[in-house]
């Protein structure tokens, strides 16, 4: 687990457009922060700068008190879940979840991998589906496998980019409950981008409203609701 701190973080794209205009934000160890705001306000850009997929033009990004501005994504020890959770179709659920650990060649023994995969699959209620292929799973089960891949790494923080936006309303509700339960169990620092009001108001400890690359409001869901 780790805190995430931004000091005057700026992103100007090569075409000269400044998408993020000097953001100061402090996310505590174990905190769950939701990023909301209209399309184009800079949510994805901010998330991508935390993960390291996008360079920071100015300012400072710290993870667990360490400046990561020049650190490659693979050295940041973060786990990202996208809306288009690309699972490997030819691999079983078990191997899909194990994949990030197998990728870190030699770092984990088969026994360690097995323990981690089984812990994640129990947490996500995937125990009965470990030998199946993604094509034979429901949308919600596939999304859970994608989360399993994030959990299994025991990363310092989770980053979600609209993870539920491709699911139907009923599944979204179920997965929302699932994510809330996971957060209570794992208490991992989380930054979560969404368009969905219900997700914003029910999942986060705090909600950050972005507008034109600036923080318009940042408060608890209740505090946000009570502000004019
Ligand atoms: P959001 O995720 O809130 O929809 P984005 O972070 O994707 O917003 O984009 C913020 C702004 O930056 C938008 O105006 C978008 O057009 C612009 N933008 C995103 N990526 C690039 C890029 N590679 N080059 C130039 N402008 C970009
Ligand atoms: P989202 O709203 O989910 O961020 P977008 O359609 O805005 O999705 O962006 C999809 C991809 O296109 C991203 O990789 C983003 O960086 C890039 N992009 C977005 N806007 C621009 C832009 N104005 N110029 C170049 N690339 C862009």
UniProtKB/TrEMBL annotation:
The chain holds residues 1 to 228 of 422 of the full protein. The keyword DNA-binding does not apply. Keywords: ATP-binding, Cell membrane, Membrane, Nucleotide-binding, Translocase, Transport. Signal peptide: none annotated. It comes from Georgenia halotolerans. One of its GO terms (molecular function) is ATP binding. Residues 4-228 form the ABC transporter domain. This is Sn-glycerol-3-phosphate ABC transporter ATP-binding protein UgpC. It comes from the Bacteria.
């Amino acid at each position: 687990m780790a805190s995430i701190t931004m000091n005057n973080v700026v992103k100007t794209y090569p075409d000269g457009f400044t998408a993020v205009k000097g953001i100061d934000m402090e996310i505590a160890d174990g905190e769950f922060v939701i990023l909301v705001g209209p399309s184009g306000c800079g949510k994805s850009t901010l998330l991508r700068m935390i993960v390291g997929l996008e360079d920071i033009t100015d300012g400072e990004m710290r993870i667990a008190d360490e400046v990561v501005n020049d650190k490659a994504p693979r050295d940041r020890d973060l786990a990202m879940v996208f809306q288009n959770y690309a699972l490997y179709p030819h691999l079983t659920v078990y191997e899909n979840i194990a994949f990030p650990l197998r990728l870190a060649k030699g770092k984990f023994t088969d026994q360690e991998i097995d323990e981690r995969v089984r812990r994640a699959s129990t947490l996500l209620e995937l125990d009965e589906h470990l030998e199946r292929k993604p094509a034979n799973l429901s949308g919600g089960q596939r999304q859970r496998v994608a989360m399993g891949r994030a959990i299994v790494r025991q990363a310092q923080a989770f980053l979600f980019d609209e993870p539920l936006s491709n699911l139907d309303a009923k599944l979204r509700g179920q997965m929302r409950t699932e994510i809330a339960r996971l957060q209570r169990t794992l208490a991992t620092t989380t930054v979560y981008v969404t368009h969905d009001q219900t997700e914003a108001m029910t999942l986060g400890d705090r909600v950050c409203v972005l507008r034109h690359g600036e923080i318009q409001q940042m408060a608890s869901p209740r505090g946000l609701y009570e502000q004019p």
